[in-house]
C-alpha cells in the first residue's frame, strides 16, 4: 500500500529550521505566480488603468471635465487634476469584479486544480501535514491578492504620472494634503483593498476543497461573488447585506476623508476576518478529513 | 486504486476496521463543528453587542422638565466634533415627492437619492440638503465657536462638505469636483449663528427648532435616561396636546453634563418607525483641529458663486415637520400656530392647473389629472374640491383652484383650514 506515513516521518525528522516552514509557502507561491494564467490575469488587471487613463485623456482633450455631474466610477472627475486619483479610480473600477474574479480563479484552483491534474497526492506525500499545506495555499492566495492590487495601483500610478499632472492631493473632504501624504494614503488604500479580498480568498479555498474539478471550483467562487453583489443591490434585503463580503468594499474611500472615517473600514476588516475564520476552518475541516483519490 | 487518506491517528492500512471508520466519522464531525462554532460565536457576539448597546440606562439624579430645558438653553458647548446618523422616513413615494408637496424644482431632487446619476450636479447647499429628506445618511460635524463650522455628508466613495469659516461659506462636492461659494449674511441672526442650512440636520438644530415651538399646547416630561454615543443623557419628551396634529411625540436626549442635545426622534401619531431620527454616534467636546475649517478650492474644480440673499426664503417655522425640506416658498402664509400650523401657498406651475384639468376633464382627464388621482384622494368642501396627499407625517391639500395647504396635521384639519 502506498499510504503516506506522515506522522512517523514527522516524528523522525529533527527540529526544522525556521526557513523550512517558509519553503512550503515558497513552493506554493512559485506554483501560483509561475503560471501563465496568473501572469495573464495580472496583465489584464494592469491594462485596466491604461484603458481608463486613455479614455479620460481623450474625453478631456477638448478641455471638458470627466465624469459630468458625478457619473462614472468614483473619483474619475479628479483624475485630470491629479494623476494619483487614477489609482483610486482604477481600484474602484476593478474592485467590484475584476480583482475578486482573479482571486476567485486562483483560490478556486488552489486545491481542486491540483486534484484534477493529479498532483495533490504527491503534494501530500511531503512531510508537511495537510493543515500546513492548506495554510501555505491560503497564504499564497493572499500573496496573489496583494500582488493583484499592487499591479493595478502601480500601473495606475505610472499611467497617471505619464498622462496627467501630479501634485498636492485634494481629499474628498476638500482638504488638501501634500503629494507625499497622498502617496501614503494610496498605499493604505491598496492595503485596504488587498485585505478586502481575504473573504473571497477563504471562500474560494473552501469551495476548492469540496470538488476535484478546478473549473467547477472557480466557476462556483465567481458565481458566489456575482450572487453576493446582486443581493447587495436590493434595498429590500438590507437585513442581510452587512454580512455579505462585498458590502463594505468601497469603504477604502474612507481613507481619503479628513479625518479618516474608520467605522466602515473596521467593519470591513472584521467581516473579512470573520469570513477567513469561518471558511478557512471549514476548508480545514473538509481538507483534513477527506479522502484524496487523485 | 490506492487512496491517500487523512493520516491523523491511523496506524497504517491494517487498521481499516469498523471501529477505525467510526472513529474517523467522529473526528470528521468534530472538525466540521469548528467552522460552525466560529460562525456561532460571531453571531452570538454580534447579538450580545447590540443587546449591550441598547440596555444599561445610566443612573442619573432626577431632574424636572423645566430644569432640563433651562440646562439646554444655557448650554455653552461651543466646540464639538462628531458623527451624526440621520434617518428620515416620511413615507414619501420617491418619484413624485416634488409634486405631492408642491415643491419648487429643488424639492424634486430629493427623489433622486444619493445614488442617482444626476445627483450632485447642483452644489448649492439648499439643493443638497433636500437629499437628506429620505433615507439614512451619515454626517460628520465639527464646530468651534459661532463662526467656524463644518458639516460633511458621508456618501459612498464621495463626500459633500459645507465649511463655514468667518463669513465665508464653502460647499465642496467631491463627486462632481465642484465648489459653491457664498458669503454668509451678516445681518441675519445678528451674524452670530450659522446660516440655517449649515447644521439643519444636527440634533442641536432640530432640538432648538422644536423647543421654539413649545408652548401651552405641549406637554413636556422627562422620561428616564439613555446612553447616546457613550454619554449619559436625559430623555425629554414633548407631546403635542392638539388632536389635529399628526406628530405623536418628540424625544430629545440631552447630555446630562453639558445640556447638548444628542439625539432627536420625531414619531408620528400613527405609530411605527420614527419619521426623523438624528443622533450622534460619536461625539467629542474638545476643540477640533484648526485646519478642519480651512478650505481653498482645489485645483481644477468648478467654482460657482452665490449671492447671500438666496437663503432668505427658506421656511423654518411651523414645527419640525418642515425640516423635510421645504425650499424657497415665496408668498407662503402660515395659518395657526405651533404644532397645528398649516402653510398656505400658491401651487407652483403645473400642479394646480393639472389638478384643475383633471377635475374639469372628468373621465377624460389628462395624464396629469390621472397621476394626481392615483397619488392623492379626492376631497371636496366649501372651498371647492381638491386632492389630499398623505405621507406618514405631512399631509397636503391641493385645491383645484391652485392653492396648496401643507402641514403636519390631519386631513380634516387641512380641509377645515381651506374652507375658512
UniProtKB/TrEMBL annotation, chain A:
What Pfam families does the entry give? Answer: ABC2_membrane_4
Q: Which domain of life is it from?
A: Bacteria
Keywords, A to Z, come to: Membrane, Transmembrane, Transmembrane helix
One GO CC term on file: plasma membrane
Q: Please list every transmembrane segment annotated in the UniProt record, as residue ranges.
A: 36-56, 84-107, 140-164, 184-207, 214-231, 269-287
Q: Name one GO molecular function term.
A: ABC-type transporter activity
> Which PANTHER family does the entry link to?
INTEGRAL MEMBRANE PROTEIN-RELATED (PTHR37305), MEMBRANE PROTEIN (PTHR37305:SF1)
Name of the protein: ABC transporter permease
* Originating species: Streptosporangium nondiastaticum
Automatic annotation (TrEMBL), chain B:
Q: Transmembrane segments in this chain: where?
A: 32-53
SUPFAM superfamilies xref list: Prokaryotic lipoproteins and lipoprotein localization factors
Where is composition skewed (Gly residues) in this entry?
108-118
Domain MucB/RseB N-terminal, by residue range, is 159-290
Q: Which UniProt keywords apply?
A: Membrane, Transmembrane, Transmembrane helix
Q: Which residues form a coiled coil?
A: none
User: Mind telling me which InterPro entries this protein's record contains?
Assistant: LolA/LolB/LppX, MucB/RseB_N, Sporulation_related
Compositional bias (Low complexity) spans?
97-107
Q: Where is the composition biased (Basic and acidic residues)?
A: 184-196, 296-320
Disordered: where is this region? 1-26, 97-124, 177-203, 296-330
Q: Report whether Nuclease shows up as a keyword of the record.
A: no
Superkingdom field:
Bacteria
Q: What is the name of the protein in this document?
A: DUF2092 domain-containing protein
